[in-house]
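Let's practice the habit of predicting before peeking. Look at the sequence and jot down your guess about where helices and strands might fall. Then scroll down.
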Amino acid sequence: MARVRVIFAEEQNFAGALVTEVTVDAARLVLVGAQGEALLDVPVAGVRNVDRGRQARTERLKAEHVNHGRPWDESERTRLREMCASKTPMREMINQIGRSSGSIRGEMRRLGLVVDGAEPVG
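Done guessing? Here is the structure:
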């Protein structure tokens, strides 16, 4: 048996309790098709992750980071330079700029504010 966590897009009613996620002990993961046929039947221990793919990831990132997917503009670059110079923590940069840490680190590299894995230059 292995522990499986399932997160639902909408609340689900389980015996009168509304839940958005559930964790269960299970031996197998079985995906059932529209006709009731088993499309997949595998041991849970062999499953690393189940998700809705690239579109779901993009939706999640846009919800978490208001500027996700938008090109950087010069005012954001200026703000990033200022934050690096003042050694602003990454969490604060994420909150103020509205982008993921990966996006911020990538822009820092492009602007020469950091050399792969090093502390910000400034």
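How did you do? The longest strand covers residues 2-14.
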